[in-house]
């Protein structure tokens, strides 16, 4: 903060060098500086949101990623502001250099992070892993540069017209906060859906470079030496050239990165408003894999998973069945194998998954064209929101085929409140089946699901089923790397009256991979590893 009337200590240089020599009227110059503040603030917030979104997608656990990125950036902004005090007497040149650097680093940050993820795959484990530190490094660097803008912009404003420090701060922060609002709204509603994460970041960097370069080279060019003007011009043109080249190559880059993650057999790659959907294989005898946000949801062992999810719950009345999630149609396929099923309601958040399950030849063949059955009815909705208005005491069976509780976005779908709503939808004697994620690798999460179901007034029968080939549906772990793939799945069968027994419907075709004896062994194996005294997970206190 500048104190215009406070005398500097003896021997201390002062940044005030008289009014700036502007090519426009002071009022116009002041407006242009505040307009640049507005644009730079919008770009800075887009960089922050870009890092949060990309880290949440690549690593999982969006609450942790948002906390890390934002806290590191805010800390770095303070350090950057302190460091920039030394540049106040060369405010114009310093601001121009900072904006060119910020445009390059911020614009290329998403591309660099995605490249490291695609070609190293090393996002698991502790924070000591290199790619996670790269996220911190980008957050720190961008925060330092954003923080350094503030004292330099304050000096530029004061050079146009000296005023009291409070008034200058008010004007500066007003433009800054309004710009942040515009950037914060533009990212989810404009940049992300229309351009995607990579192109959106590159465009933001270009806008940042143009705004900073135009202000310094246009409005404050008389404050720069000839050499400084040429250096800033060359630097900004170089940054714009790098960003433009990256934008031209971004489609080829995404394709190469996708092949690095999923292999060279990608048939379908969609970015919906909800998630990224990738289908690989399914033709020429190659196995079909379905990835949602980079996590393998349908793999070579899907039959074992879906039979273990569905068939124990169908041992009893099953005229009306509700499937929460399961847009791929594979849980519905197993439900329809049982005689006596009159209606199957599927509640899926992403309509694009259902469209693929209906029309993709390989996936529709795998689900045996379940969506062509007139008994199957699909609703596109959030499962939690839908259950709040669902008919009560209606369903004989409710199957929760949802993303694992280790993913932050799924935490509410494994809460006591959610299971209370599911219990309300059950008919008397109805059964609820919950997929509770990998059992061996995250036993505490599994038993927290059990504790949460019990807190909702349900009696539980937990069990686990081992995979034979490759694991999938492994929550926040990146299962494209089979060395870290889940090797089993945990399930919980629950009922409002008594703990349901594990068994198979004697009137239905027998499953290929399950038998009553193996189910009993799986239940005993799960019980031996019980973790006791775990509190339930709620909306306001998630435990996963």
TrEMBL record:
CDD domains recorded: AdoMet_MTases
Q: A GO CC term?
A: plasma membrane
| Residue ranges of the region described as Disordered | 525-544
Pfam families, alphabetically?
Spermine_synth (PF01564)
Q: What is its EC number?
A: 2.5.1.16
Report residues binding S-methyl-5'-thioadenosine.
275, 348, 382-383
Q: Where in the cell is it found?
A: Cell membrane
Provide the alphabetized UniProt keywords.
Cell membrane, Membrane, Polyamine biosynthesis, Spermidine biosynthesis, Transferase, Transmembrane, Transmembrane helix
Catalytic positions are 401
Question: Where does it primarily localize?
Answer: membrane
The PABS domain sits at 247-496
Claim: Membrane is one of the keywords in the record: yes
> GO BP, one example?
spermidine biosynthetic process
Named in its record, the pathway it takes part in is: Amine and polyamine biosynthesis; spermidine biosynthesis; spermidine from putrescine: step 1/1
Keyword Transmembrane helix among UniProt keywords = yes
- Membrane topology (UniProt): Multi-pass membrane protein
Cite the binding residues for spermidine. 306, 328
HAMAP family listed in its UniProt record: Spermidine_synth
Quote the function comment for this protein.
Catalyzes the irreversible transfer of a propylamine group from the amino donor S-adenosylmethioninamine (decarboxy-AdoMet) to putrescine (1,4-diaminobutane) to yield spermidine.
What's the subunit arrangement here?
Homodimer or homotetramer.
Q: What is this protein called?
A: Polyamine aminopropyltransferase
Q: What's the gene?
A: speE
